[in-house]
Amino acid sequence: MKSNQVSTEQIHLFLTGHGFPEKVDSAVILGSGLGDFTENLDEPESIPYSEIPGFPETSVQGHTGELFRGRLHGKEVIAFSGRFHHYEGHPFSRTVLPVHLAHVFEAEKLIISNAAGAINTRFSVGDLMVIDDIIRLFHGIAASPSEPFRYNLYPVADRVRALAAEIGLEVQRGTYIYLKGPNYESKAEIRAFRTLGADVVGMSTAPELSEASRLGIRTTAISLVTNMAAGVSAKKLDHSEVKEAAEARKEDFARLVSVLIEKL
Ligand SMILES: O=P(O)(O)O[C@@H]1C[C@H](O)[C@@H](CO)O1
Ligand SMILES: Nc1nc2[nH]cnc2c(=O)[nH]1
């Protein structure tokens, strides 16, 4: 049943044959530890990635590997609880599978999320940040060659902060620097990235944003600061912080995504 040769159209056909709608309003990609968002969906249904033809499985802790459908504010939503990272061995063309599916479901909006380390010393663990620009040190990351990054994230970031303020949430904004991982950075690297203008660092999202930009999908991306990056605090870094920070902010994260689905 599983094959890398399965097209996104065939996956769409499989999913619509299993209760998914033809089209959705919004697609959400859930970062490490943020899968609990799906508890907020009305009439949720889900299919494990392992049962979807052509879908790779996820191997990272905090990514359950399940595709959800449901409704929120009466709108059809699909949510990817688990993503595919390049460092897990997936080519970039596969890391952007959720974006391609958002496209075949004709999603009007794509909301991407991730766990990230804060480089900006004014940020704190637990902060939510809307990404207003990205730095890609590795320019091989485009899933399609020679594509410029043409999406302007600044106006969307303004709107996201305004909507967050409406529900009493303070959201930082800033630049996400993409590193291939899976190892965290050295202190010297973090100092260097600060001088480049990066506010947070992570190992996903940039390929997805590039591909969403190429496909012309209206997209925003939210980082949850799960730790201060290497050397920013004296604390030893550990993946368990991702889970703790996500657990502490999961309700606010869900409220933010919910208002974005409703009004962005
Ligand atoms: O999928 P995201 O970007 O949330 O995952 C981040 C990056 C690493 O996989 C992991 C680091 O602990 O969290
Ligand atoms: N590269 C990187 N990814 C992260 N994901 C969550 N925290 C971090 C971090 O400090 N560095």
Explain what the structure shows.
GO terms for molecular function: purine-nucleoside phosphorylase activity. With 264 residues, the protein is α/β, with parallel strands linked by helices. The protein has a single domain (8-263), classed as 3-Layer(aba) Sandwich (Rossmann fold), CATH 3.40.50. The protein is built from 7 helices and 9 strands; from the N terminus they run αββββααββαβαβαβα. The protein has helices at 8-16, 92-95, 97-104, 153-166, 187-196, 206-215, 240-263, and strands at residues 26-30, 42-48, 66-72, 75-81, 109-118, 128-136, 172-178, 200-202, 218-228. It has a 5-stranded mixed barrel with strand order 5-8-7-6-9. β6, α4 and β7 form a beta-alpha-beta unit. α1 (8-16) packs across α3 and α3 (97-104) packs parallel to α6. The protein is globular. The model has no long low-confidence stretch (mean pLDDT 92). Guanine (GUN) binds next to β5, β8 and β9. Ligand LQZ7MJT6 binds at residues 31-32, 60, 83, 85, 114-115, 181, 202-204, 239, 242.
